[in-house]
Amino acid sequence: MTFKDIKEARRAVNFYALANRRGLQVIKTDSTRASYKCATDCPFRCYISQDGNSDSYQMKTWKDVYTCHHCFKNPRVDQNTLAHLFKRKVSYNPQYSLKEMKDDLETGFELNVSMSKLKRGKNLALKKLEGSFVDDYKKLEAYGQELRQSNPGTDVVINISKDVLEEGKRKFLRMYICFNALKMDWKDGLRLFIGLDGTFLMGRYKGQLLVAIGQDNMNHFYPLAWVVVDKMLELEDDMQKGLLDDVRNWSAWSTYEEDFKDQLKKLDEISYGTVAAKYLLHYPPQA
User: Fold this and answer.
1) CB 3.0-4.6 Å disulfide test: which of 63, 93, 107, 276 passes with 45?
2) Which InterPro entries match (predicted)?
């Protein structure tokens, strides 16, 4: 077994000790080697050092023999091991409590870890996630530019906060993406219908993902465009208020199919409603 560096080798040994509930003790470790033994008098031995023919590190000795019982307190489970173990859960739920972490360790590994060590591990995981999120946000502009160059006609809009920009900082506000191929397909072969769906984004950075959806004649749905926003925008200005009134006037709500058809026929009396009514009447309503 080989490792790219001694740090990766130590992490692998720590996870081995955690998964197998073995209390391993460090004999000696430095920048070029690491050796371990069992905390009791078991014959277990592990020795890792740099390979002479490459820059990688190789496990030179591995004697996986035990005569002791599983340990309930493991010295190899440090804050770095806990940070890697719970990184995904913390990213999905920053409110993941220390008690939940302790319960998961006791249930999954029969391991007892102090609350102070759990706190250090969680803080380290949050710190690493913060750095990874910041790095990803820094790549958004390059990602948008690559989409424009590789997909001509694609719309990519990335907005940053003007208030924060005045302070000399950059803060992501919202992003809109619509591929040119999706636009052309909607114009050429899909129904003249656009729906809207959305979901809340969970994790450290909240927001909403909104998706414009098209439909073909087989009732299959296709994403047309999507946007990531902080929250739903209110229709407040005069033009949007007028649009909202038109949408309300064009609505046809009913409980029975006959009543629904009557409501659609009333759209003929509204300006620009004739085409919409005929189009909707052409397709039978579905539950």
Assistant:
1) 63
2) Transposase_MuDR (IPR004332)
